[in-house]
Amino acid sequence: MASLPKAEPIPVEADEHVQIAFTLNxxxxxxxxxxxxxxxxxxxxxxxxxxxxxGCEQGVCGACNILVDGKxxxxxxxLAIQAxxxxxxxxxxxxxxxxxxxxxxxxxxxxxxxxxxxxPGMLMTAHELLKQEPAPERKLIRETISGNLxxxxxxxxxxxxxxxxxxARREARDAS
Amino acid sequence: xxxxxxxYVRPTSVEGVLEHLDSGRDxxxxxxxxxxxxxxxxxxxxxxxxxxxxxxEALRGIEQRNGYIRIGALVRHAEVASSDLVSxxxxxxxxxxxxxxHPAIRNRxxxxxxxxxxxxxxxxxxxxxxxxxxxxxxxxRGRRDVPAREFFLGLFETARQDNxxxxxxxxxxxxxxxxxxxxxxxxxxxxxxxxxxxxRATLASARFDALDLVLFxxxxxxxxxxxxxxxxxxxxxxPALGDAIATAVAAEMExxxxxxGRGDTKRKQARTLITRVLERIVHG
Amino acid sequence: MHPEARIxxxxxxxxxxxxxxxxKGQYTDDIVAARVAHVAFLRSPYAHARCLALDLAAxxxxxxxIAAFSGADIASLSPPWTTYLRRLPSHRSAPQPxxxxxxxxxxxxxxxxxxxxxxxxAEDAVELITIEWQELPAINTIEAALDDGAxxxxxxxxxxxxxxxxITDGDIDAAFAQxxxxxxxxxxxxxxxxxxxxxxxxxxxxEPNLGELTVYQSHQAPFQMRDIYAAQLGLPLDKVRVIVPDxxxxxxxxxxxxxxxxAVVAIxxxxxxxxxxxxxxxxSFVTDAHAREAEAKGxxxxxxxxxxxxxxxDMLSGFGAYxxxxxSSVGEALQAIQLGGAPYHVKAFRGRVRGVYQNKVPxxxxxxVGQPIACAITEQLxxxxxxxxxxxxxxxxxxxxxxxxxxxxxxxxxxxxxxLSLHECLAALRQHMGYDALxxxxxxxxxxxxxxxxxxxxxxxxxxxxxGLYGPQGLNISAHEACRVSLQQxxxxxxxxxxxxxGQGTLEGLAQIIAEELGLGPADIHMIAGDxxxxxxxxxxxxxxxxxxxxxxxxxxxxxxxAHILAIAGALLQTDPADLSLYGGEILGKTGAAQITLxxxxxxxxxxxxxxxxxxxxxxxxxxxxxxxxxxxLATNGxxxxxxxxxxxxxxxxxxxxxxxEDCGRIVNxxxxxxxxxxxxxxxxxxxxxxxxxxxxxxxxxxxxxxxPLPLASEMPDIDVLHVSTPTRETLLGARGVGEAGVVGSLxxxxxxxxxxxxxxxxxxxxxxxxxxxxxxxxxxxxANAAKPCSTS
Lengths: 176, 284, 793
Known about the structure:
The structure holds three protein chains of three kinds. Chain A is of the alpha+beta class. Chain A has helices at about 40-45, 90-95, 100-110, 120-130, 140-145, 155-175, and strands at about 20-25, 25-35, 65-70, 70-75, 85-90. Chain A has a five-stranded mixed sheet. Chain B is α+β, with helices and mostly antiparallel strands. Helices cover about 35% and strands about 25% of the residues of chain B. In chain B, the strands form four sheets. A five-stranded antiparallel sheet of chain B has the order 4-5-10-6-7. In chain B, strand 2 (about 25-30), helix 2 and strand 3 form a beta-alpha-beta unit. The longest helix of chain B has 21 residues, at about 265-285. The termini of chain B are far apart. Chain C is globular, with a radius of gyration of 28 Å. Chain C has 20 helices and 33 strands. In chain C, about 60% of the residues are buried. Chain C has a seven-stranded mixed sheet with strand order 3-5-1-13-10-11-12, with helices on both faces. Chain C has a six-stranded mixed sheet with strand order 7-17-16-15-8-33. Chain C has a four-stranded mixed sheet with strand order 20-28-29-32, with helices on both faces. Chains A and C meet through helix 2, helix 3, helix 4, helix 5 and helix 6 of A and helix 1 and helix 18 of C.
């Protein structure tokens, strides 16, 4: 086992575990990984954060969306070793922070989730959308969440929940 | 689907990368990973060594340089989409970005990665060919600049040698007389195109002084249409001209059959797209 | 009931939803099991091949590998199973082994299993297996299956004909001969697969000292699977426990017994470690039950008054290599013709379906099970007949929609109908969608070369299917539902139910029913489901049964519990129980004043029963198994409409808006019902525009999420849902099933809408999905036809 050196590094061989250190949901963590492991697997197995779901391991379905250095990304399309030094936030961390509590409550109230498998990834995408665009039209919401596959809801309720959250936030801002 | 085992290295400099590319090992470069990782996970790609270039500062950045906009190898699609320099000086790319994948992919995927991957249905290679961008390849032998129109050789095949790194791409700054158009047919928003058209026209009122029309997703690489330019240059726009251009390109193309349809279906769709894109370019 | 206690009929948010939204769902792959080992499979790359030699030696030596199993190894633990229906003995299936023994019959069939410490190591070892194949002739199309001298799909089958079933009612030939208007059309339905976002997942553990098998599985019917595992492995039923945790979507595909999952369970009995298998997405495409592959010719006849005099459907249905175990693959084929014309008065009807085996993935249940096909054929024929007769499609429907009730009747296809409300549904739909205004707008846009289409789709569907469909077939499938409700010491209520919930919200509905009966809130009802060791025996989830049948069990059980509670309270309070009511966890007297809390009542029963002046204390735990007695199932009806726009230059279709008017009787939770409908509608639009399994040379060539397009948000419309309500009298609750309603009608509505859009161009689409290529082909064919000098279209 070796930590990665700072100067031009030598390769980590295929069967060699390497210790990586990163910030996970606001906490400094370390774990040993093999080069080929993807980040979703390591989050789910090493850290037991099973809220990040695997639907395809191809980057298509979006169920594995997490935040990497503040931006939404597919956890199945990152090597775990790439998380070294990064700031990673999963649905568990986002929930604990309370930042999306209103969005989650809107999903619950509107039943914008059924089996729940796409939901963490969907919330990640919606969260980033609302950060970038506080007054998104339905068309923009639909386009943005087109990177998240849902087989249960048919999307209509999800659009409603994102739209109502955006509206409530704007009203709260205007009122204050 | 788990990846087959591979070694991994994350150089801190371009020189470090080039040394690994020359090492004789079966090496693949990891930039955005949005094309490589699915391929690794499905074991379609089984390199010996993955060279991660994500920490190399020299590869970052969008800059304006001598009539070009330079996009470094680590520039993400999302950065390009929100770049003021790009929207002002490379408007074709700004238009095309609307069709590129989805937010999570755009946050990680890179423009140069898309060019190096050379998927014939991807938007960035088509834009590069339309604008005849310059692709800058680095190796231990030095630097090699390849025009986009000579870079794309076939299905996932480019002029880049195994020991070369695509370090940056230079897009020419748009001239005031240039107009741009982009459209594609895709099964769903964000999908790779089934048929696509990118165009740059130099217009003097309604007269074409130049026309670079590229058809993509129909053949193994983007088609820069010679026929379109031949018919259009010197002519003023009319629906009949649009029709003639579309007909000529439909005859020029050699479309392949694939999941999106037969070649002749692509011809029909190409005709429709071409006339619409040109009409929009002319009428704004 | 206390006036504020109304909960049934309100859109309560689901208790589980909060957990899911926080990422706290627990799906089968999330379960932590110590020392779990992982299974990976070698799968047949050929559609049909003989396995001549299999060498697992190198694989066994690979790093991390614990064991390797061949088909013969597994067969000695769990013998091949054979699907058999007692009432359909002509439907023969070849015996299906858990792993291929010598003959692989579809591309993707599991051949060998490797167990290793990690999934990656197992997959590495699979690559070290050497295998010698002899390719055999493969049947890849429906036509090829029935050709003279066609190669057998499986060497044990004498014929590839799996089913030949006909229904006749009335003199069909005479009706067509005498008809005023006759229209015929052909239909092709592409093969589809359900695609649940959570792949099939199973975790099995065998405790050798106790001889106990525990299986965690992403599945819809735990009791069915317990029966199968016990029977296959020779274990006593009470030593087998099946638990279904949270399930990430099922849609019927997780109703079946899968060979590879059986292999995993068998392997678990041989190892001293829990064994897990998660189907990768690529594996899912070549193993999850497929569905819908069919070709049909349909004819419809009208008399001079526009009344339907005859409907004739001749269908070929494409099965896979085996008849799915245990329910068989015939369900979809049969329902595809049985439901033909069901919403209409049809004087004469003939339906014939032949099902054929093919060297493809075994086909099985997928939401709607044949009914979307029946509806699409019927509705398209109605539209074409309307056009031929010069009638507005809504008008033709209004003239022919069936009225039914109050006594049950049978449709020509044999469907038992209690009541229908199709006329009311159509009227509500026309009014709400502004049908007449949309027709005028359509005409205006047509003048400008913009091709909009309106498609209507009336449907009758079967829900809440009872035991009558399974028992007589000799299938050990329980099709009643049960609830055991018990009053807890805290005054809350625990409900253990046979119903399972994969996101529909059925458990919330049951909680609402129980809460209302007992004067509590849904949060006071603790629902337990999906565990054969904890819940009463019953079915689970399929054929839209959860609320209709399970809800009835919940209602009856909680009514009995209420009566028991009030009897005890009456004795304690020396009051007539009829003067007491329940509200807010308390027992209220005649004036509405609280007399005693439920918790206090439980204390009395538990610790001071000697002080309760009753000869016999009624139990505070009641179990009710509900079996529908009069009707075999609960037919429902509705009508849908789609508004689309077709781009004739590109062949693309935009779905602008969708409407559904549904009559599912009594609605327990309007929001949950509407969302089930919306989800189903989008699946039907997906079928209409995108989904089909594409094959080349016997190989599935689009078996990945990148290439098998599922509907995404950008292309889907907003969907308006309205209701007419005709409670069923089969139950006290009055609720009918609704889970499949959306998908039953939406393919038909979209099909009708696209053809309506193309009508001015003289084109019709005949093949689903209506890809841009198919639409452009049909437009071109219509133009060529029109250009001919003496054309008759």
